[in-house]
Amino acid sequence: MKTNFKQLALFLALTGLLTSCSNDDGTSGQSAEGTGDVELFFDNGVNGDALVLGSSYMNSNGETLTINRFNYIVSNFVLIKEDGTEYAYPKNLSYFVISEETEALTVHLENVPAGDYKQIKFGIGVDQQRYLEGETAQQEFWNLASTNNMVWTWSTGYRFINFEGTFTPASHAHRHEEPGTPGAGSYNFQIHQGSNTATDNYKTITLNLPTTARVRTNEIPNIHFIADANVIADGVNKIVLHNNLNTAGTNASIMGGENLIKIATNTLNMFKVDHVHNGAGSHH
Q: CA 284 from chain center: how many Å?
């Protein structure tokens, strides 16, 4: 009798475990018909740690960065099924600003065809096709980007990434003068990534989903991304901020030239999908 009781308890425990896991990994039992919504959540980090504006961290170049702004544009979302079938979200609706300083971290996609999706593809920035449609065609997004410090002027277009703060070079780690003072221990930096007349720095990445995202009429999958700000200057290409100081020696600004091409390559590895939640409602 005691043995049977133990076996029953074990069976119930295993049943509960399987039930709890089924939310993300099983099938919902609901037919893949009609449309549903998808929520994308962007969790910004720095080399494995959570990004907290105003906090400092050291990169592999030995420079200590204090991040005060981290904003970027994501666009042209495409959901891909296991058989390779793609659903491209309507282009005129597919541009979004992610901003750590305003806590705009979520993208909500509506009326996505029901189905089981295994990959997601999206761009970093604004593609040339969209930009060349002109100011009137994209006025609403231009206004949003402008309020989030993501534009230059209309003739020069969008900032794809706005990454700012202060830094201390490796050779000055022991000094603590005011930022921006010539010869001081720390300096201001601004990295404004975008395209220009010389190069198109818009990049597209495709990521595998660790769990199938099930889109159903009454179920909203949440795809949770982690974006690593450290990768911008400390990725495949190493960009030493101290080597980019202006002639006055007060400020490091990267807004053009060869470094923007290197940064665009780095951003191909800036994102990863951490997990997927399936089920009604939204989850982080």
A: 15
Residues 8-66 pLDDT 10s: 444 444 444 444 444 454 454 555 789 999 999 999 999 999 999 999 999 999 999 99
Tokens representing residue 197 in the block: 């007349």
Give tens-digit pLDDT for 216-229: 998 999 999 999 99
Looking up tokens 């060869």 gives 258
Partner residues linked to 46 by β-bridges: 49
Torsion of CA 269, 207, 196, 151, to 10 degrees: -100
Is the sign of the CA dihedral 130, 135, 141, 146 positive or negative? positive
Quote the CA–CA distance of 136 and 172 in Å, as a whole number. Answer: 48
Look at residue 196 in the predicted model and tell me its pLDDT.
83
Task: Provide, for the chain, the percentages of residues in helix, strand and coil under a 3-state DSSP scheme, each rounded to the nearest 5.
Answer: 25, 40, 35
User: Two tokens at 111?
Assistant: 């009326």
pLDDT averaged over every residue in the chain = 86
Extract the runs of DSSP E, i.e. beta strands, from 144-197: 161-168, 187-193
Mention every residue, 6+ apart, whose C-beta is less than 8 A from residue 186: 66, 166, 167, 168, 172, 175, 176, 177, 178, 179
pLDDT of residue 177: 52
* Residue partners of 24: CB distance under 8 A and separation at least 6: 211, 275, 276, 277, 278
Q: Are 94 and 32 in contact (CB under 8 A)?
A: no
Q: Which contiguous run of DSSP H or E holds residue 39?
A: strand 35-46
Tell which residue, 143, 132, 270, has the closest CA to residue 200.
132
